[in-house]
Design a protein that fits this description.
Chains A, B: This is Catabolite control protein A. Chains A, B: InterPro entries: HTH_LacI, LacI/GalR-like_sensor, Lambda_DNA-bd_dom_sf, Peripla_BP_I. Chains A, B: It comes from Herpetosiphon gulosus. Two copies of one chain form a homodimer. Helices cover 45% and strands 16% of the residues of chain A. By secondary structure, chain A is α/β, with parallel strands linked by helices. Chain A has three domains: 44 residues, lambda repressor-like DNA-binding domains (434 Repressor (Amino-terminal Domain)); 123 residues, Response regulator (Rossmann fold, 3-Layer(aba) Sandwich); 140 residues, Response regulator (Rossmann fold, 3-Layer(aba) Sandwich). The longest helix of chain A is centred in the last third of the chain and has 18 residues. Chains A and B meet through helix 4, helix 5, strand 2 and helix 12 of A and helix 4, helix 5, strand 2 and helix 12 of B. Strand 2 of chain A pairs antiparallel with strand 2 of chain B, so a sheet runs across the interface. Chain A binds a DNA duplex through helix 1, helix 2 and helix 4.
DNA sequence: CTGAAAGCGCTTACAG
DNA sequence: CTGAAAGCGCTTACAG
């Protein structure tokens, strides 16, 4: 078996309390004692047992991140930001992927992270009031990212405002008939992105005195093939839109695919704007709304670590800005038609 | 504070050992006793303390995954496969991202996961003999994914064979001058992919009696912009290649960008083949080698869990197959030129 | 500055 | 089938 604190103490000729003090960098140790202990630790390759330490300190030195759809680029970027911050701390990162509503419910009912982590980072998953209560009862610091809860610090982006910017951009290019393609408005996991972005879409139209046309709204699924299908449906309309705003880049890629299939030149015959600014958006020349995804992760992790280290736990709302990135998919030469 | 096993025992009118037996599903408990204990557990919302359990059982119920470059699609896909398998087990997944050689060295020297995890999944990072020895000394089961170690179970794909397939495909389309764009052949972290794929490239040329032309080899960095630059360099050659094999899709995207900038039609004027079959490859019409990335993750996790649960720990090598996916970037109409 | 002792919350022989 | 007791490897008052 591995060496224990007793082995070190015996070999260094001190008590285990002294070894513990050296380990925990207590100032109350004579320099020569410390040196002797450190030498033995080094010699033996001793490493303190985490479980024992946890048991007595009631600290795990781990934080958990709970996120849906691990493979979607958005979440990956957020994860990357989180990881970067956590890696520079003393904490370890435990990951929980929640893909289905059942899984989600099970998680927040059993709180499997309880007692295994000192804090929680919840990405994009809205929490129901009883779930929030349960978290707080467990006294587990939590930070929400890309979603918010009344009593918890939350890091969000302005989805309504971003969508507004996107649609206003199309209007400024002369478009009057603008379709909106999105995922479900009331999805299983309770996301509000699609709804928020639609609100921005509607607000922009209204602000510019354009009519809201129900047939231009295509809410379906958060999948590229839905973007494809929705675009075909829009094109089949008696009066098809001259521009399409997709609630995320992935949908936009599906839209673009469909338009090309129909022989339309994106950015010339019809304009497309996405949302996310995935890496691929640049390659495709997609005008889109850039979200600071990695920065959301960083910010969330920083807020959590601050709460953990300094005990600051005010339920602040951090809203990160979004920007319109203009590319060729919405170039203006067509629009004045 | 949270309830402890003592609270449950007292309230149920039994000893703590009996509560423990119920918790651990020992058969030696009278059904009515069990029922009473379970009722109290439920009533109190009691949850056993992990640290205490770990301390006495010396099991953490966690496994760690160590991977580089968390955001690269390849690793994400592997991670996804791992997560899917681990989520269905009793284990939790701790993630360590290792991006720099210094970080890498530090990790394998300090083994920060030691005592925090029951097993290790190492993705793509080759281990030096002393590092392997250290792992084995720590008696920590480990499985290698996309890299191999002599004494450890390893899940790999046939990179040499995949590259061979890719180049042979180009040759079959009539190409004789085939460039090769890759990342560093001897990268800091010790990856061997680029080298392996180049070996496949060379083997295919040799097998078909084509000359190896040093000026067609462009080894630089694993970044899209290098693909871009390398392509420009190849085009500037007195006798530029008629086809380019890129060691991964991301490089291929850079290559394609450059070709388009130069006014070349990919798949007509010049052929391009990538490696990885990223989601984006389909959108771009890139012919490429498909790797079962998620499956590699699954397989690795399964092997590790088997080792953990059943104690099977034979150092088996699992080689997963790769396939050529033909798309428009290498369509044959040009090649007979 | 340092050591002996108590205690963290469990599991597991050992008796019965 | 069940309970009292020992022990896992630490940290932390408490004395000195």
């Amino acid at each position: 078996m591995a060496y224990t604190i007793k082995d070190v103490a015996k070999r260094a000729g001190v008590g285990i309390a002294t070894v513990s003090r050296v380990l925990n960098e207590s100032p109350n140790v004579l320099p020569e004692t410390r040196a002797r202990v450190l030498a033995v630790i080094d010699e033996l390759g001793y490493r303190p047992n985490h479980a024992a330490r946890q048991l007595v300190t009631a600290k795990t030195n781990a934080i958990a991140i709970i996120l849906p759809f691990l493979t979607r680029p958005f979440f990956i970027e957020v994860l990357r930001g989180i990881e970067a911050v956590v890696a520079n701390s003393e904490y370890q990162l435990i990951i929980f992927n929640v893909d289905s509503p059942e899984q989600r419910t099970r998680y927040f009912n059993t709180l499997p992270f309880l007692g295994r982590t000192d804090g929680l980072l919840i990405v994009s998953l809205p929490l129901a009031p009883p779930e929030i209560k349960r978290l707080q009862a467990a006294n587990l610091p939590a930070v929400m990212i890309d979603t918010q809860a009344a009593n918890l610090p939350s890091v969000v982006v302005d989805n309504v405002g971003g969508a507004f910017k996107a649609v206003e951009h199309l209007i400024s290019q002369g478009h009057q008939r603008i379709g909106f393609v999105s995922g479900q408005l009331e999805p299983d996991l309770g996301f509000t992105v699609n709804r928020d972005r639609r609100r921005g879409y509607e607000a922009a139209l209204t602000a510019h005195h354009l009519p809201l046309q129900p047939e231009y709204l295509r809410a379906g699924f958060d999948r590229r093939d839905w973007g494809h299908q929705a675009a075909l449906e829009l094109l089949a309309l008696p009066e098809p839109p001259s521009a399409i705003f997709a609630a995320n880049d992935d949908l936009a890629f599906g839209v673009i695919d469909a338009l090309r299939e129909r022989g339309l030149k994106v950015g010339e015959d019809i304009a497309v704007v996405g949302y996310d600014d995935l890496e691929m958006a640049q390659l495709v020349g997609l005008t889109t709304i850039h979200q600071p995804m990695e920065q959301m992760g960083r910010k969330g992790a920083e807020v959590l670590l601050a709460a953990l280290n300094e005990g600051t736990r005010r339920p602040t709302l951090y809203t990160l800005p979004v920007d319109l990135i203009e590319r060729t998919s919405s170039s203006s030469k067509l629009s004045q038609a």
